[in-house]
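Justification of resources, computational component.

The compute hours requested in this renewal are based largely on the per-chain cost of generating structure records like the one below. Each record pairs the submitted sequence with a full structure-token output. That output is archived, and it is also reused by downstream analysis tasks.
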Amino acid sequence: MARKPTGRPNGRPKIEINNDSFKKLCELHCTKEEIAGFFNCTEETIDNYCKREHGESFLGVFKRLSVGGKMSLRRYQFELAKHNATMAIFLGKNLLGQTDNQELELSGKDKNKAVVEFVFKDTAINEDEDNDSENI
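The structure output for this chain reads:
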């Protein structure tokens, strides 16, 4: 027996996902779980939305949209580096390959001998500790 049409749609109401909000959440590098929580839906709904509205998987959409967040963060870091030496050093090390090199100068007649003795002394200490732990 067929049901009589009631004039209202069957199933759950469609969850509306605002594209601007979705894009901003991707730019903030929110996870699929966090985005689903924001829209009060399941992760599967997010997957279906991406396929329907963007024609690709969540991962593809996320990779494309999250780039804007990386650019914003980089812009902010460069601006911050103008007034913050720590940030300037961080960016120099990570983007320019700069390093903090500390030189150790040994005193004495034979500098190489001092280094060798230090290495052997350190090794001897470690070997003694290993032997002590084996005897326990």
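Residues 122-126 have pLDDT under 50 and may be disordered. Helices lie at 19-27, 32-39, 43-54, 58-81, 85-96, 111-134.
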